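# step 3/5: fold
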Amino acid sequence: MKAKQFAICDSDSGYLKMLQAYLQKKNPADFEILIFDTINKALEASREVPFEILLVGEGIYDTNVTKISASKVYILQEDGLKGITGYSMVAKYQSMESLITQVLEEFALDDNCSSIGRRGKNQTMLISFYSPDRHKGQSMAALGAAQVLADEGYQVLYLNLMPFTGFEELLQTSYEADVTDFMYFVLNHSDKLLYKLDSLKRCIHGVDYLPPALDYTDLLHINKKDWETVINLLLYSSDYTYIVTDLSETCQGFYDLMESSDRLYLLTDKSNVYSQAMLSHFRKLLRAKEYKKILDHTMEFELPRNWEESCGNFENLASSPVGIRMKGVLGEK
């Protein structure tokens, strides 16, 4: 089946090439990227294969745009003086990331735009991290492991399902939407998962991640079946080699996520009697509930002493003592 086409038409050749290079690198939703420097060239190409998305520079716009066959047309607005109406507007001069995020977000929400029915290119493994004593190093270990996998050339998606993460402050960023928005959207529009994923995800050290939940009660309201549905859709439809989940009890599908994981990594501290007692309690509970599969694919690990002193740079956890430790843990059978 021919790839869906994402076309850009603008007279600024430098801008065209820059946007094309960005899109080809990011490869959002498997679009084929086409560029045109005249409206007539875009019109001729659309007669052969209609475009899924068309971006048209405000400066090059003329009435022939109405004849171009495209599911969704956006005007790359420069000064707004042409008075163009009837199309979605997106600011031309902004970061490429913000521009494409806005385009894909609106495209995903448009019921008139077609969906994607596909199977991912890679066999995707689900690995999960959990600490029964709610050890503060759990997220560092999970994200460090994700970065190690990314450094090894794998496509990785990291999902933090902890109630409080502090990511906005730690990463000096802000989020307008989070993982719960993604889940609610996908549950209602599963066929547009990739559009929503590509419009919402962020990246750190080669690892894609969805912004963590602002309010953990939003996670609590998602039922067990819905957790299973979203995770299975990601495993089936995305191109990730690994999905790394940073687990907490905020998930109603808590045990099911563990059971469906290819490997569960349990963070513990053998020097701490309380940590060992909680781990023992957790294992006893799994045996009582007859979760043999979880017990069979579980691996315990510890972080190096004084690990906190070397984790100031989230952008490069892979090179920290935590990352080096996680590389060894991931290599263990």
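# step 4/5: annotate
The chain has a mean pLDDT of 89.
# step 5/5: archive (pending)
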